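ok so I'm stuck.
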Amino acid sequence: MKSRPILIVSFSSVVCLFVFCKSQTKNTAGYKTTPIVSDSTLLDIVERQTFQYFTDGAEPISGMARERFDEDNDYPANDQMIVASGGSGFGVMALLVAIHRNFIGRDEGRDRIEKIVHFLETADRFHGAWPHWWNGETGKVKPFGKKDNGGDIVETSYMVQGLLCARQFFKEGSQKEKDLANRIDKLWKEVEYDWYRNGQNVLYWHWSPEYAWEMNFPVHGYNECLILYVLAASSPTHGVPAQVYHEGWAENGKIRGTESYGGYKLNLRHQGNPPHGGPLFWAHYSYLGLDPRGLKDMYADYWQENRNQTLINYQWCVDNPKKFEGYGKDNWGLTASYSVKGYAAHAPDEKNDLGVISPTAALSSMPYTPEYSLNAMRHWYDDMKDKLWGAYGFYDAFSEAANWYPKKYLAIDEGPIVVMSENYRSGLLWNLFMSCPEIQMGLRKLGFESPWLK
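replied:
not stuck anymore, here's the structure
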């Protein structure tokens, strides 16, 4: 950090003091000067710009989050009305952040969530679960794949996680807010988690009225789906016994495993057995509301697991064993996102590191690695803003190695940036979700420890 000297200029008896205080940051073109911005101000800027994906960018009839947005090509003609259940659940949480930060008024935030709740009450559901995609104009399911045209209990759980935060946020407010909280409570209680067992001690990701269980995707850990099992155990109307968690998710203890990189150890066997842990969204999606601080069960300490997964991801990019241009201590983060060719679950290993950095990876890891995440945020904002910043904050992914800077966004990557940045700053969503009595009951049922359970 360097500063220019104070310059004092006298005009008659008036002395004008000008302080030119600039931070010098290095980029590929050399050094340039940019105004100093505090961490708090920069977080405000990023949170505010990003949450607008869920207001300005929302599908207008449903109020839901569009699956994706491309600034260059607008929307493909056939999917501008396609909305996503999981991404919209993250969007509900982002709206709560916006109210909390006074980016929007409380009444506007409530109105927007009311519109979403009305859509959820009237759109296609399948044993209480919502599909991955709908047509936001009609509420009819949009198949995510040929046989994936029914309930998606994982994406539903991301929505429920957000809705329960909203219920807690509004339940003691005005009569309109209390009415909204009650409508949310009804939706939550209508999700038939027990149906998605398919009669077994495991939860199945999909069910379709046309194809039944043909997708045949039992949800085993460890991946992004812990929140599914916590909500299933917590449901006051369609709950599942603890055996479903221990035999299904944890596979009778087979979930345990040890991998390490850079001196950081993982104690869970990440799904697919990646050598250094999976894509970073596994440390984000379930923990937008589920507070990992002090969260432990017989299998893991989830704060330590998530932090170590993040540190491995960071260290891999610093070491840069594949020698990709641009990687380093202020330019890191591998997760599922757009890729140079299609979409990919980027991760820190020889096979899955494709030279693509996804800003959501580092930014949504803010609670785990605040210094490293803030360094990346500053580098991208100060040095690369002309390539990486658009209407809704940082674009989804980029590759300096491939000179690839698409102006694209994905709802499911946008929401966690806002939510986890706010959890780092105030713990807002963690406090709301963990205050739910059903969640505390469900965690106890599964044998978890948490400061919230004392």
